[in-house]
User: Fold this.
Amino acid sequence: MKRSGPILLAALAAGTAYAAGPQTPSDFGTLFCEASLAGDMALIEGAQTPGLETIIADALARNAEIQAAAPDEKPPLGDGIPWRSWPDYADGCEIGTITESDGEAMVEIRYTFSGAPDATYADQLVLRAAAVAGQGWLLDDIAFIEAMTLRKSLAEAFAP
Assistant:
């Protein structure tokens, strides 16, 4: 995977994450891979659409309530926000195909495992251009394998 030192350093220098999204879908994919490999998805927290930010905040609040009510049990999001199809740590991450049209972009993220070369898979970041020109791209969802998405996964985590 191509390293994006300047992008990552800019995000770190800002304190936690981007005040706006990365300027290109490719930059977003690079930052997403950097965050995924570092195990620190906070690097993209400031680069989400308001709708996705609300969904994640609500899910985390519900998860905290469930944890507080049953502290000895693992809550629905006990492994954190599901940022990819599988929770297993992939030690390789690279950008695949990028499609862009009318303020939307799909960025393929390919995950690899050095110890299991046949266990690769790809998710797709669903990006939206920020409402304010020049504010870059924002994450709106992630299309996982098997017709699941980040939004659906968070909703189903709390379904009765």
Notes: Confidence is low (pLDDT under 50) at residues 1-18. The CA atoms of residues 55 and 151 lie 7 Å apart. The domain at 5-157 is CATH 3.10.450.50 (Nuclear Transport Factor 2; Chain: A,).
